[in-house]
Design brief:
By secondary structure, the protein is α/β, with parallel strands linked by helices. 30% of the residues lie in helices and 21% in strands. The protein has helices spanning 3-28, 30-37, 72-75, 80-83, 130-142, 170-184, 198-202, 238-260, 284-307, 327-335, 359-376, 406-421, 468-479; strands spanning 89-94, 102-105, 110-112, 147-150, 158-159, 164-165, 188-196, 266-273, 315-322, 342-346, 350-351, 384-390, 393-394, 426-429, 435-436, 447-448, 451-452, 485-488, 501-507, 513-519, 525-531, 537-545, 560-567, 570-575, 579-584. The strands form six sheets. An eight-stranded parallel barrel has the order 3-4-7-8-9-10-12-14, surrounded by five helices. Strands 2-18-19-20-25-22-23 form a seven-stranded antiparallel β-sheet, covered by helices on one side. A three-stranded mixed β-sheet has the order 1-21-24, with no helix packed on it. Helix 11 runs parallel beside helix 12 (406-421) and helix 12 (406-421) runs parallel beside helix 13 (468-479). The chain starts with a helix and ends with a strand.
Length: 588
């Protein structure tokens, strides 16, 4: 074979191989080529045909003689057809043409806020100024807090030498100042009648102790024997009945003292807290024995308040167990449905990661379980149910340092929406502010140098800048009311929550409307809100996003950033990841 013929043959082989490679490459990119031919904004197709549409995207210039190598990593592992489609639009439904879920909704309008800041003689020397007290009350009001749950330390007024109460001590007067300050702002007090029931069970004071007289030991004093008939009480219950009478007598006198000073804003009496809170593994007979002691004690408290003529001055609230299971609630309701005007309990379910879209799934069955005993006793819709303590957690974190992130606020509002949709009347946060407990300097667990570190904002002894969660809870609390709101069902039960979108709709007592939408997904979401019955209202959007939230000393909640004029059947919006948005007829 001549050299020329060999050269020609080699050239033919190269051409054939090139054509095969081109054909193979075309087959492997068939989907991309087909997609490219259907796009309206494409610079060139695979065959280098110019597009008839302009391209506004910046292009990188390539010097003559240079080529740009696009490896597999430049294309990524995705489907071009999906990536170029319009984003999915989710449909969120508000069934406002049907019977509401509840008509006594109070939103997130309660918090634990003790009178300790008003104690001007704290042993550590740290005392709030009047300006500091005023600033905290301003912030409570701005975030929609209407009810402040507080402890009254009975040791402030007990005189062991006299065997009686002195309602004119310095600390009693500081407490009256606290009550009056809240009353002047139209805020109400949920007053603890005792704190740890465990002290009564053990017949000994706990770390948060009361006057020892209240344990129910010793001889009758102060005429207490007139409030019950010892001959009709079982021996094993006698001390608990006596203790209940003593608690009832003490708080009846306190209520009368407040009224004599023109203070009338104690609206709720909370019968202890975290009473008989046991793990699921605790034997049933042990749990029920202690539930029984709590019941006879609480009945004695209320009966004594009745005999003093003050029982109808406030709503009676219990059993306030700390548990994800309604064991104690069910036990009480099976034996006495008249004891409490408001039922409540609390728990702190924990997720693995605060950015996981799992918190609705964690909380919803718990709230449903709490409300079910009310339905069984035909109390639902008649008796309110409160979450008397609430906070989101992740990975077992106990203190506010791990609970104050923006995402903790996002998931907190997800849980608030679940609570509203399952019939929970009110959520009481644990808590709005860190607080110095009077006379304490201890560090450990939830305390740092005597300051209880569980708030959405630090103690003003530490900083005036709130934590990010403050802005999320505050936004929801401010626009969801505190009394007789009407909650309408949404389509969360249709598993729309799997998208990471959550919605609640409330018609407030004054006729205003508030629709809250949370995007708890890690991606931006577009959605429509569809009303079963035309709304006919202008809605003002207030949105707070975890992406750009920067707390500062002004502590201002989100203002109006979008207006929907004369909304009838629907409106559409897009929310970034980790965003709480309130659409309300209140301009704010």
């Amino acid at each position: 074979m001549t050299r020329n013929n060999l050269l020609i043959k080699l050239i033919c082989i190269v051409i054939a191989i090139t054509l095969c490679l081109a054909l193979f490459g075309g087959c492997s990119k068939k989907d991309v080529a087909e997609t490219s031919s259907n796009q309206s904004e494409q610079t060139t197709s695979d065959d280098n045909t110019e597009s008839t549409e302009p391209n506004d995207e910046p292009t990188e210039e390539i010097e003559d003689g240079e080529t740009e190598d696009f490896g597999d990593e430049d294309f990524g592992d995705f489907d071009d057809e999906e990536s170029l489609e319009e984003p999915e639009i989710y449909e969120l439904e508000v069934y406002n043409g049907q019977a509401p879920v509840q008509t006594h909704y109070r939103g997130v309008s309660s918090t634990v806020y003790h009178a300790f800041g008003y104690m001007k003689d704290d042993k550590s020397g740290r005392v709030y100024t009047d300006d500091m007290l005023s600033l905290e009350l301003d912030r409570l009001q701005d975030t929609g807090i209407h009810f402040c749950r507080t402890r009254f330390d009975t040791k402030w007024i007990w005189s062991a030498t006299k065997g009686n109460w002195d309602f004119n001590t310095d600390r009693a007067n500081y407490f009256y100042t606290y009550c009056k300050a809240l009353q002047d702002r139209g805020m109400e007090i949920a007053l603890q009648v005792g704190w740890h029931f465990s002290g009564l069970l053990a017949n000994a004071n706990t770390s948060i102790s009361e006057a020892e007289y209240l344990l129910g030991n010793g001889e009758h004093i102060n005429g207490e024997e007139a409030f019950y008939d010892a001959s009709k009480v079982k021996e094993e219950n006698l001390r608990f009945v006596k203790a209940g009478v003593r608690y009832g007598d003490t708080y009846a006198k306190l209520l009368k003292e407040l009224k004599s000073r023109g203070i009338n804003n104690v609206s709720h009496l909370f019968y202890f807290t975290e009473s008989c809170s046991y793990w699921d593994s605790t034997p049933t007979e042990v749990r029920e024995e202690h539930y029984g002691k709590y019941l006879v004690t609480s009945q004695a408290i209320k009966n004594t308040l009745k005999k003093h003529g003050v029982a109808d001055w406030a709503k009676h609230t219990g059993p306030l167990q700390a548990s994800a299971y309604p064991y104690m609630l069910r036990y009480i309701l099976e034996r006495d449905t008249e004891l409490f005007d408001v039922l409540g309990t609390h728990s702190y379910p924990t997720g693995k990661s605060i950015i996981d879209n799992t918190y609705y799934d964690i909380y919803a069955p718990i709230f449903e379980g709490y409300v079910q005993p009310l339905k069984e006793k035909n109390l639902y819709g008649k008796t309110e149910f409160w979450m008397d303590e609430f906070q989101t957690r992740d990975s077992g974190v106990l203190t506010a340092d791990g609970q104050g992130s923006a995402w903790h606020g996002v998931q907190g509002i997800v849980a608030a929406i679940a609570a509203a949709q399952y019939g929970v009347s009110n959520i009481s946060t644990w808590q709005s502010f860190d607080q110095l407990w009077t006379d304490q300097t201890n560090t450990g667990s939830e305390f740092y140098k005597g300051i209880h570190m569980c708030g959405h904002a630090p103690s003003l002894f530490m900083s005036t800048i709130p934590r990010p969660s403050y802005y999320m809870y505050g936004l929801y609390g401010k626009y969801n009311g505190y009394k007789d709101g009407t909650v309408y069902k949404t389509n969360l039960e249709d598993e729309y929550w799997l998208s990471g979108l959550y919605i609640n709709a409330v018609k407030l007592k004054d006729g205003n409307w508030t629709i809250t939408v949370v995007n708890a997904d890690i991606e931006e979401k577009t959605f429509t809100v569809d009303f079963e019955k035309a709304l006919g209202k202008t809605l003002y959007r207030h949105a707070e996003s975890s992406n750009d939230l920067v707390p500062d000393a002004y502590a201002e909640l989100a203002t109006v950033d979008k207006v929907y004029v004369d909304v009838q059947d629907r409106f559409t919006d897009t929310l970034p990841s980790g965003t709480v948005a309130v659409y309300t007829t209140i301009k704010g």
